[in-house]
Give the backbone structure.
Amino acid sequence: MNGDKKRGIAEHFVKFVEGRGFYIVLLLCVAVVGVAAWTLNISTRKTGQDLEAALENTLNDLPTITMPEQIPVTEPDLYVPEEPTIAAPIPAPAAATPAPTPQPVPEQSAEPEKKTSAIPASFIRPVNGSIERPHSVESLTYDRTMRDWRTHRGIDIAAPLGEKVRCVAAGVVESVIIEPLYGVSVTVLHDGGLRSVYRNLAEEPPVGDGQELALGDVVGAIGQTASAEIGDVTHLHFEMTLNNEQVNPADYLPQR
């Protein structure tokens, strides 16, 4: 009878555990965790108190350090150096006066100084004819070839084709050239920086560079080589310069 009663109690307990076993286990775990936390808290608090007591005892055991009294500072005596004695300056020796440098005496030239020669005293006309077009550099004259108004550096002296052209004064042939506008041209250099220029000459004039000419020597013949004045009557285009400046040839030539 007692044995059956014990088996019945055991079976009821097993059924109770099987139905609510999970919750029982969870409750037991919570209880275990709580007990462990309470134990740890008590242990930590005790350990902290023990550390504070040990630190306080250590500080009390440290020896007391007494600071020494303030040591007075004595300022050192300043050293003042004595002023040095300045010796009187020794006068510099007087500079010797240099001897004057002899100036070189210019050598006398063996050749006497050349004097500027004067322009020729007399002239002749290069050809005998009338002045068809005058010298004009300050005002304009009508050009029948170009059919416009322009300046004129020389004078145009009418003359038959082929007539001989003569040197107006003694001189030296400076150049014989062919110009694009004024054709065959001969330039003669005279004394005093005077030059005479003969243009519109026939081809192959009988003079050359460096040739000396006397008054009246032939320098060429009347031609038609000046393309800039081909529309005019046959003539000699004659110019003169003094020190490379244009001058009026009519001021030097004799009147007819």
Notes: The chain has two domains: 1-60, 131-251. The domain at 131-251 is CATH 2.70.70.10 (Glucose Permease (Domain IIA)). The chain has one helix and twelve strands.
